[in-house]
Amino acid sequence: MLSKLYVGNLAYSVSNSDLEELFSTMGQVQSVAVIMDKFSGQSKGFGFVEMTNAEDAAKAIEQLNDTELKGRNIKVNEAKPRGSSFGAGNLSGSYRSGGQSRGGDRR
Length: 107
Prior knowledge:
The protein is an alpha+beta fold.
């Protein structure tokens, strides 16, 4: 089963092929994507690597996290689903309007 990894703190000069070369030393790489700004075309400083199996992904996290790549110490960890990003839990109707508290008027 594929395991997706987040790779952060990338130097702006890191390319897809740089990441593929590095991570292929840990096992078979399925895909690589350095995330680029759609307006400037410059790297956003992070990317994703999909490894073909979980064992290779775990090895990559253990051995590559906080190691140097093109002058920066990269961060490698398991990628989280997009829906778990900051603030997503606040969209469940927990806002109140009118300034009223739960127990009614407590003046």
